[in-house]
């Protein structure tokens, strides 16, 4: 049985932050599963999810949002540099994708780090033992990040949605669309639901 997980997200989206615990739970349950984290680079410095969405995500998931994040919650967000970094990790150090995403979301949503310039990433790069080149931290999408966006479009065409976050698991030639909204308050429950889906396929 070959399993893969596809997570379409944006690092600066509170709903993506609330969905990452599901990805963590699935990775723990299926340690041999190949996890593909696909950053949608939705936020380009012109808008943000805003206070209402953050409050809704916090209420449903029970996750904490830090005081500094809350203070600037309505300020425009820019996730391009994060998208570049995550695309670079996917290409160069894929085993570090999930640990880095968790560190990035903690920095942004709990510590209030805007992740706007190269300096903002220093602690994460050090913590996760990464060695990205300086060109990763430019203001435009890298070739690797553009390639990720092409992959996202392909998946969106198959599942018929352009929204995010999105979780899709493939088991051999079968695809399981996971409705993340059902499990935000209890991420562990997603494992049982997926096990039932896999049993039905077999």
Automatic annotation (TrEMBL):
The keyword Isomerase applies. Keywords: Isomerase. GO terms for molecular function: isomerase activity. SUPFAM superfamilies: Thioredoxin-like (SSF52833). It comes from the Bacteria. This is Protein-disulfide isomerase. It comes from Shewanella aestuarii.
């Amino acid at each position: 049985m070959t399993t893969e997980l596809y997570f379409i997200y944006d690092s600066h989206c509170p709903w993506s932050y609330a969905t990452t615990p599901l990805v963590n739970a699935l990775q723990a349950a299926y340690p041999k599963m190949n996890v593909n984290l696909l950053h949608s680079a939705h936020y380009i410095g012109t808008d943000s999810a805003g206070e209402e969405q953050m409050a809704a995500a916090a209420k449903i998931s029970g996750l904490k949002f830090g005081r500094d994040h809350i203070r600037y919650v309505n300020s425009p967000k820019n996730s391009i540099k994060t998208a570049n970094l995550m695309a670079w990790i996917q290409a160069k150090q894929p085993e570090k994708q999930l640990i880095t995403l968790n560190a990035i979301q903690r920095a942004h949503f709990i510590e209030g780090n805007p992740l706007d310039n190269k300096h903002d990433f220093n602690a994460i790069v050090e913590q996760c033992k990464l060695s990205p080149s300086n060109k990763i931290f430019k203001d435009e999408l890298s070739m690797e990040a553009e390639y990720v966006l092409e992959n996202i479009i392909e998946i969106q065409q198959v599942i018929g949605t352009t929204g995010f976050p999105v979780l899709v698991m493939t088991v051999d030639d079968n695809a399981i669309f996971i409705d993340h909204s059902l499990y935000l308050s209890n991420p562990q429950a997603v494992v049982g639901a997926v096990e039932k889906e896999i049993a039905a396929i077999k």
